[in-house]
Structures are given as structure tokens and as C-alpha cells.
């Protein structure tokens, strides 16, 4: 219970974690675990100052409104938004010795790397799939994403309060596995399905700690979950399964760090931080703490035989919707529609 309780309190009670005043990291709750960036700790003797958010769009709005940080941890589909707003600057990869160890598939976009430079250092990746109580939910019920619209689970499900993740779910459930070229018909089918799913939702979770708490308390039995929610529940000895192979598929995402233009802190410490993240030893720390994979091929090699990799990160034989950069107008349309659905319209 200790890990889950600690994580819940850290996410819910602390808007920021104050430490090194010369580096402010705007991040998802949970990533402040020092073992992930141990090289920074070894060099400076303290953690960066952390401020937390639970949703990519929330983070962008706060930064666009004047919140000052040195680095931010968006997922891939948000990088273009920061670029277009002029909020970030390219990384100097000559100051990042392990940059060439990043798996090229995570840099395969002009949004991330172009003739102006490298705008995004991808660091971590994971899956979004069905977390469920193995004692109350039969395996056959989670063989399909339609568990989220099954009347049997009315008031017993939870979805992320994240437009990207719920639309990934809705597209998969209605047969769309690539969101980079969505027709009006596909959008409408997904929206209709999401409205049905909304009828079963007990609560939309804001971060994985909240999702884990909802399940641990018995409030819900089924959730659309990232790997970390499952890790927290396993640490609490909760009977949790992670179904990534529903017949319609599951989703993947990856995230990383952007360098804020004119950040208030030390640029040298910005690079010390990202270099610590890209050390091979960060792979094991990231997996143990949050359940995510690392973008460094060397880091992944150190954890290739870990059971958690097989459970939550291995290749699967069903459709996978990759949450890669998509059309900004389409993404805004999805965000607006999701807000209507949550409001009951």
C-alpha cells in the first residue's frame, strides 16, 4: 500500500516539488523519481524543482499563459503546438552524447527534427489498454473494447481525462487504426461510440495515481489505462490485468522533453538533466517506477528480459493505434467534442 499511497498523495497534494532552484521541470506526476535521472543527482546533489500537470493540453495552456519552466515533458502529438506558439527552441545535440542512441523511429517526423534542428528529445513510451480487476471481470469481457459500452459495467468504468487517449480508444473501437487521416464518417462513428462509453463512466481520471486509487477503492473495475496505473496497482497487491490484445487493438504513445525558449534557470543544468535521462541505467529505473519503455536502444537492452517488458511493452498481434503527431485542426476538433461529451451533450 505504501507506494500507491505515497504516489497518490504526491500527485494530489503537491502542485510543485521545490528543490534545485536553477532548474524547473514541468512534468507528469510520477516522473520526479530521482533514480530516473540519477546522473543529475550525482552531479548536483539535489533534484530539479518540479511542477506537475495531468494533461498535455492543460500544460500547454499554462505555459502559453506565462508559467515559466526550463523543460517540459509533452507527448509527441503536442510538440508541434509548442513549436507553432514559439515557446521552445531546438536542442544542441552536440551537448547530448547519447543522442545517437535514441531509436530512430521516435524521431521520424519533421515536427521533431528538421533543417532548423532537433526540437524534441523522446525519452519514454508506453501503451494504453484495458486495466481490469481479475477477480470481478472475466477475461472474455475484456476480449473486446466494447466492455466500455457494455451495460453490465454501467458506473464501473473509468476513462482518462485526456482527449488523445479517449479518441485513440474510440477510433480503435470503431475500426480506425490510423488517426493521421480521419474522415468525417470515422470521426462521427468514434464520437457516437464515445457518447455510449460516457454512460458507463464513474469518473474520468486525471493522472495514473487517481486511476489506481479508483480501482483500489473498488469504485471501478475497468479502466483505459497507461502502464503506470497498472504498476501502482501491482505494488498495492491489487488483482489487476492489463489487456493489450482486445480484438480491436490498443494504443501506444511516446513522450519526451522540449527546451523552453528563454527558460528562467540554468541551460547547463537543462543539458545535465536530459543527459541523465539518456543514460542506459535510466531504463531499469523508468520501468520499475512507471512501467514505461525507454527510447534509448542501449537502455532497452538492459531490461529486455524483464517480465514487465513482456507484459506491458512487447509486440502484440492486434491493431495498434500509434499516438503520433496528427493534424492540429483535427486534434482541436476532437478536444472540443470530448468536452461536449463529458458535459453530457
From TrEMBL:
Keyword rRNA-binding: no
A Pfam family that the UniProt record links to this protein: SBP_bac_6
Subcellular locations according to the entry: Periplasm
Gene3D superfamilies named in the record: Periplasmic binding protein-like II
Top-rank taxon, per record: Bacteria
Keywords: Periplasm, Signal, Transport
Signal peptide feature range: 1-18
InterPro entries: Sperm_putr-bd
Protein name: ABC transporter substrate-binding protein
Species: Paracoccus rhizosphaerae
